[in-house]
Amino acid sequence: MKKIYLALLLCLCGIVHAAAQTGQITIAPNPQVALLLEVHKNANAKKISLPGFRVQIIQDGSREEIRKQKAVLLQKFTGVRAYEVYEQPFFKLRAGDFTNRFEAHKLLSDLKSVFPLAFIVPDKINPAEL
């Protein structure tokens, strides 16, 4: 008889324990996560670049020399966008945002009088500047 009561008690405990396992999980989203995602999207939207061409004016191991030449470029050619690029081990000064070589060649012709070693290079350009 004790064995029957014990078996019944164990079955009853098992049923109660099994019934207690049903539940539901609710995940509340943090509003700051949505804000951070929006900031990330906006920051990356500004970094869109297209394949294009620029005119490379000078390549040098010295950042100071690049900045001097950039000042000369901006003084003599107003309205030209200049970019300082670092590709190890050289600093490079590039100008313009062009979608094709023909457009870049117009600027190259003008720059050759002051920067005779300038040449056209493929590069990522800023479409907002076009």
Description:
There is one protein chain. With 130 residues, the chain is α+β, with helices and mostly antiparallel strands. It has a domain at 50-129: Sporulation related repeat (Alpha-Beta Plaits). It is 45% helix and 25% strand. It contains 4 helices and 4 strands, in the order ααβαββαβ. A 4-stranded antiparallel β-sheet has the order 2-3-1-4, with helices on one face. It is rod-shaped and about 110 Å long.
Protein traits:
130 residues; alpha+beta; Alpha-Beta Plaits; 4-stranded antiparallel beta sheet; 4 helices; 4 strands
Oligomer: single chain
User: Low-confidence segments, ≥5 residues, pLDDT <50?
Assistant: none
Share of helix, binned: 40-55%
Q: What's the story with the biggest beta sheet? A: 4 strands, antiparallel
The helix count comes to 4
CATH homologous superfamily classification of the domain at 50-129? Sporulation related repeat
Examine the coordinates and then state which fold CATH places here, giving the name of the CATH topology of the domain at 50-129.
Alpha-Beta Plaits
Topology:
Blueprint: H1 2-19, H2 31-45, E1 50-60, H3 63-76, E2 82-87, E3 90-98, H4 101-111, E4 119-125
Antiparallel strand pairs: 1-3, 1-4, 2-3
Describe the structure concisely for a colleague.
The protein is an alpha+beta fold and 130 residues long. The chain has helices at 2-19, 31-45, 63-76, 101-111; strands spanning 50-60, 82-87, 90-98, 119-125. It has a domain at 50-129: 2-Layer Sandwich (Alpha-Beta Plaits), CATH 3.30.70.1070.
